[in-house]
Write a structure and sequence with these properties.
- The structure holds 2 protein chains of 2 kinds.
- Chain A is mostly helical.
- Chain A folds into 2 domains: 88 residues, Rna Polymerase Sigma Factor, Chain: A (Orthogonal Bundle); 86 residues, Winged helix-like DNA-binding domain superfamily/Winged helix DNA-binding domain (Arc Repressor Mutant, subunit A, Orthogonal Bundle), CATH 1.10.10.10.
- In chain A, 73% of the residues lie in helices and 0% in strands.
- Chain A contains 8 helices and no strands.
- In chain A, α1 packs across α2 and α3 crosses α7.
- The longest helix of chain A has 25 residues.
- Chain A is globular and about 50 Å long.
- About 10% of the residues of chain A have low confidence.
- By secondary structure, chain B is an alpha+beta fold.
- Helices cover 20% and strands 22% of the residues of chain B.
- Chain B is built from 6 helices and 16 strands.
- A 4-stranded antiparallel sheet of chain B has the order 6-7-8-9, with helices on one face.
- The longest helix of chain B is centred in the first third of the chain and has 27 residues.
- Chain B is globular, with a radius of gyration of 25 Å.
- The C terminus of chain B is likely disordered.
- The chains are: A mainly alpha, B alpha+beta.
- Chains A and B meet through α1, α2 and α5 of A and α1 and α2 of B.
Chain lengths: 176, 387
């Protein structure tokens, strides 16, 4: 024994890779960056795999933590460039009749305008469908922080979508 | 909020066929684990003796970014089932067949209701889409089977081509570049490399368990870290590889045994353990027994009795065994090639006369090239296939 269970890890990667990349995309706004960040998170999961298996700890929760951490690292790496990009107003256009595509691009764009923590909370809660407790575990913050950050994030998202001329997806509901 | 959730799912849904590079992930992961171990070793050394500190850290190869990985780490030893779309099956196989000089046709893997070859995406029958599977294709429009609706009918076409559905990054692999010969029997790395190139499926991280040779061929059984096997046969300028879709061991490394298995003496383990022979056209046959027998300990021996009463065989490695022998063609049809299994001390644990693989015309299955030998698997299912 003592061998790393690569088979199980491979199954985990097959099952979670797209979900993680989707999360990463919504957090970073760029598919290529999302792929890099997902790969990085999955490497971190691989390194921790024996411990995760031994402890029976939630692998997916760890993967979310690793992903968020990798995203934050990516932000730090690109902080100068991102600051510049944030100042450039990007208006989504409805090209070649692809209205649906424009809507989802708008949402991704609007998410980018949110502060990092708020964006992570909104994505984990509404894309990953994590509970408040699970989102708190993934972000290593308190449940109260998740609630408040999600609430602020939704308000900011609503405002940003309106500014971009997008649909009102947020409605009047708040974070419970 | 449901609307937001739907929009988020849509926005985050994949829009391409991106797949995480599993091989790269595990190689990078292993490298980091090694680095951590090296660093830990270095720190431990520093604690134990101050004098040793400098030497310990200076000699840590993992700390040097340019320190290359061992070659094996670039190849995955783990089999992960990958399925692709039927259209992609046709596309990849056409690329492979074109590289083999068979580009005058549009090769398709599907069969229409009238029994004619159609694109896999339009097939009325299920098309195999597992990467690594050996499939048959035919020129589009060719009659490949009798109509299922009693219509057109006709003779099955013999204009078919085999294709092992390739991995996307192995499409342009060339097994025989530079006119190199067959790998030496003791060169496992080269065997795995050539098998990978023949299959256009990366098997270089797999372990070559056993191999055997005749004058013109090599045959090997490779096994992945997670218990999947591949039988690879190579001959000058060609080859054939099959990857078993079922594992021989479970996630804890324990063998997957037939139902109600009672140990090495259980005859169910050996059902279908049959040598397969290929006639050479001048009165002799080249026979082989290539099999994996789940649960058979290392060092057991599988042997075939020849018509003169002598035995030929080989030892098992993780249940795999492979050996070849020659026989007279006239023996093939009337000698049943009894097989026996001996434990590591030479005591017989099983013997029997397996049912030979007979073709409709009688006699042992034969073809221009031999087919991998069948063996017991998951309650006796046969492996390999015959033409």
């Amino acid at each position: 024994m003592g061998r790393r269970d690569d088979g199980r890890y491979a199954e985990f990667v097959a099952a979670y890779q797209h979900r993680l990349r989707g999360t990463a995309y919504l957090m970073t706004g760029d598919w290529a960056t999302a792929a890099d960040v997902t790969q990085e998170a999955l490497i971190r999961v691989y390194v921790a795999w024996p411990r995760l298996q031994k402890d029976g700890a939630g692998v997916s929760a760890y993967a979310h933590r690793a992903l968020h951490s990798a995203v934050v690292d990516q932000y730090r790496k690109n902080s100068r460039r991102e600051k510049n990009e944030d100042r450039v107003p990007v208006v989504a256009t409805v090209a070649d009749g692809a209205e649906e595509r424009a809507d989802r691009d708008l949402l991704a764009q609007a998410l980018r305008a949110l502060p990092e923590r708020q964006r992570a909370c909104v994505v984990l809660r509404y894309f990953e469908d994590l509970s408040i407790a699970d989102a708190a575990a993934a972000l290593k913050v308190s449940t109260g922080t998740v609630k408040s950050q999600t609430s602020h994030g939704l308000a900011a998202l609503k405002q940003e979508l309106a500014r971009l001329g997008g649909p009102d997806l947020v409605g009047m509901g708040g974070e419970a | 909020m449901d609307e937001l959730r739907r929009a988020m799912l849509d926005a985050g849904a994949p829009r391409d066929e991106w797949q995480a590079d599993l091989t790269g992930l595990m190689a990078a992961g292993k490298q980091r684990v090694r680095k951590r171990r090296m660093i830990a070793t270095g720190i431990a050394a520093a604690v134990v003796t101050v004098i040793g500190t400098t030497a310990a850290l200076a000699g840590v190869p993992g700390l040097n970014k340019s320190d290359p990985d061992p070659v094996k780490d670039r190849h995955s030893g783990v089999y992960v089932e990958e399925r692709i779309s039927p259209a992609e099956v046709d596309r990849r196989c056409n690329i492979v067949l074109a590289l083999k000089g068979m580009k005058t046709q549009n090769w398709v893997a599907g069969v229409g209701r009238d029994g004619r070859a159609v694109p896999a995406s339009e097939s009325s029958r299920t098309v195999e889409t597992r990467v690594g599977s050996l499939i048959d294709l035919a020129p589009e429009g060719a009659q490949v089977s009798v109509s299922t609706d009693g219509g057109a009918g006709g003779s099955p076409s013999d204009r078919s081509a085999e294709c092992i559905i390739p991995q996307i990054n192995m499409l342009d692999a060339d097994a025989w570049r530079g006119g190199t010969g067959l790998p030496d029997l003791d060169d496992n790395a080269r065997i795995a490399e050539v098998c990978s190139r023949v299959a256009r499926y990366d098997l270089e991280g797999w372990e070559v368990l056993v191999s055997s040779e005749s004058r013109t061929t090599r045959v090997a059984i490779l096994m992945s870290d997670n218990g999947y096997s591949s039988v690879c046969e190579l001959w000058h300028g060609g080859g054939r590889v099959s990857i078993d879709p079922q594992p021989w061991s479970d996630s804890s490394g324990q063998p997957v045994l037939p139902d109600a298995d009672s140990g090495p003496e259980d005859p169910d383990r050996y059902r279908g353990l049959v040598p397969i022979c290929a006639m050479d056209g001048v009165g002799m046959a080249d026979c082989s027994l290539v099999a994996v027998i789940a649960g058979l300990p290392d060092g057991f021996r599988v042997e075939t009795m020849l018509p003169d009463g002598t035995y030929v065989g080989a030892k098992t490695v993780r249940g795999a065994v492979a050996y070849r022998f020659s026989a007279r063609e006239n023996h093939i049809s009337n000698w049943q090639f009894p097989v026996r299994v001996l434990d590591s001390r030479g005591a017989e644990v099983w013997s029997g006369r397996p049912e030979n693989q007979t073709q409709p015309g009688g006699g042992v299955a034969s073809s221009e090239v031999f087919m991998p030998g069948p063996a017991t698997h998951h309650g006796g299912g046969k492996r390999g296939r015959t033409r």
